[in-house]
């Protein structure tokens, strides 16, 4: 299996939103960070991949099979964590273990308990008695305990404090030591995605603006700080976005195409996202 996920020409229409001709692939063995502003279409994309909502057009393959016809054994290899904890309020981690043991052939009870302990989730407390972060950790523990080969995480770390988030990133990187494993994760915490992702897919107003290797993006783009009038001396085709302020301007530029002696600073994924969003009509 070459691709963990492949979307081709996918469309989804809501009354005032259109996910437009979405095509990308997540190569097996890699992590893709899905970024974009509120309402850009990230969760819609994830729901379409999981076939939780119907698409209007296009094809979706997951783990090498059409997503609508995934056999149950293959479904078991997909671990999902959505923004909201989906476990019923009255269950404890012990109950959840018993239930999931009957649902997943691949359920690994010892692994689940080990994660619960490692993540310090109180196993006797009911879901409704857990903090938001604890609920997320419970969901992540479950997603990692049924021999998942593909993890799909929608804002799964947003409720976690920086220390726990860092620990979770390590858990995800551990998961990736098996080179058949893959992760698609959406997050607004772009520094996290910058740390772990191999690819960045940027959605903007229902369109995919780019889906590229993270290192290539970081190599290609830089932030040029200059006077406003300096911008006129640059070839417009190398400027990917501009921010003007009281004392001058900042431009996201294509480093290789920039001629002359300009000082260009490293761009973060957050810089790249903000400049691209402004340029494409924020
Ligand atoms: N069931 C629905 N019915 C109508 N519109 C919907 C529905 N679900 C989502 N939308 C719309 O689709 C658009 C994209 O929403 P989506 O949840 O995919 O965005 P997102 O990128 O995940 O945003 P956020 O970062 O805020 O979570 C929004 O305009 C939203 O209002």
Automatic annotation (TrEMBL):
The cross-references to CDD domains, in alphabetical order and at most eight, read:
ABC_DR_subfamily_A (cd03230)
Name a GO molecular-function annotation. ATP binding
Keywords on this record?
A: ATP-binding, Nucleotide-binding, Transport
- Which is a Pfam family this sequence falls into? ABC_tran
What name has this protein been given in UniProt? ABC-2 type transport system ATP-binding protein
Q: Which organism is it from?
A: Paenibacillus aquistagni
């Amino acid at each position: 299996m070459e691709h963990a996920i492949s979307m081709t020409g996918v469309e989804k229409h809501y009354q005032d939103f259109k996910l437009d001709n979405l095509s990308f692939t997540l190569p097996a063995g890699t992590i893709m960070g899905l970024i974009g502003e509120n309402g850009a279409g990230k969760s819609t994309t994830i729901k379409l991949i999981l076939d939780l909502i119907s698409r209007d057009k296009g094809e979706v393959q997951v783990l090498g099979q059409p997503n609508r016809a995934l056999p149950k054994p293959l479904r078991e290899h997909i671990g999902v964590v959505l923004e909201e904890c989906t476990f019923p309020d009255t269950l404890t981690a012990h109950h959840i273990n018993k239930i999931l043991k009957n649902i997943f052939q691949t359920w690994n009870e010892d692994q689940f308990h080990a994660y619960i302990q490692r993540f310090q989730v109180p196993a006797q407390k009911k879901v409704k008695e857990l903090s938001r972060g604890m609920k997320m950790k419970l969901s992540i523990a479950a997603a990692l305990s049924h021999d998942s080969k593909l993890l799909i995480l929608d804002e799964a770390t947003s409720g976690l404090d920086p220390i726990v988030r860092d620990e979770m990133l390590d858990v995800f990187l551990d998961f990736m030591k098996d080179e058949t494993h893959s992760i698609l994760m959406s997050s607004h915490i772009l520094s996290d995605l910058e740390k772990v992702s191999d690819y960045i897919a940027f959605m903007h107003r229902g369109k995919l603006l780019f889906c590229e290797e993270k290192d290539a993006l970081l190599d290609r783009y830089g932030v040029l700080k200059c006077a406003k009038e300096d911008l006129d001396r640059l070839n417009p085709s190398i400027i990917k976005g501009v921010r003007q302020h009281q004392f001058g301007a900042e431009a996201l530029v294509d480093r290789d195409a920039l001629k002359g002696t300009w000082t260009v600073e490293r761009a973060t994924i957050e810089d790249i996202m903000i400049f691209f969003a402004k340029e494409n009509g924020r």
